[in-house]
Design brief:
By secondary structure, the protein is mainly α. Helices cover 68% and strands 10% of the residues. A hairpin with a 2-residue loop joins strand 3 and strand 4.
Amino acid sequence: EPRPVAENLVRIADLGQVDEELPKPKKMLEPLLLDKPLLVDGQLLPADNPRALIQLEVIVSDWLIRTAELLSGEILSACAEWPELRRYLLKKELISTRELERLRNQLNSETRWKELIQRPIRMYESKRMFFRFNNGYLKTLIVTETRDEELKQLNWVQQQVALLVEARDAISPQLQVIVRTIGNLMVVLLTNVLGRAIGLVGRGIAQGMGRTLSRG
C-alpha cells in the first residue's frame, strides 16, 4: 500500500525528545534578529563583533548537529518498525535487522553513558562541549563556563556522579600522602632490614663454602 513517507514519519516519530545540551534557540535568535548583545568570555559584545559572530557560528553549528542527531535516532526507530523504509533511507549495511538493532543498541548505550556519567562530570568541571564541522570533519570544542545552576537541576543519579568526582578530589591529596609514606616505609624495609638479612645469608654461605674448600 503506497504511503506518503514524510507524513507517516512525522506521525510515528517522538518529537518530544530533548537533548539537554542543545543550545537554547533564544540564545541564537535574539542577537541575530533583535540585535541584542552576546555574552562572550564575560563581556557583552554587539552581534556584529567578530568574536560574537564566531561564537554564534559555534552555537548554530552545535544546534544543527545535535538536532540532526535527534532526528536520525527517530529515523532509525521508524525503520525498525517500518522495514520498507530501510532501502529508502538507510545504507545497504543497515538493511539487515541484526545490524540495525546492533547500531541502535550501541547508540542507546552511548547516549546513556554520556547522559549519566559524562554530562555531570563536565558540568562539575564547568565545561561545555560544542560540535562543529571543520573541513568536512565533525570536531568538538570544549569551552569553560559556569554551569552551577544546571548542576543543581540534575537528577539524583547524575548528582551522585558529581559527588563522587568531588569526593575523589577531596580524598586524592590524603591518598597521595599515604601512598608516599608507604613507599618510603617500603624503601626503608627493603634497604635496611631485607638488605641486611640478604647480606647475612650471603656471608654465611660464603663462610660455609670457605670451610668446605679448606677441608678439601
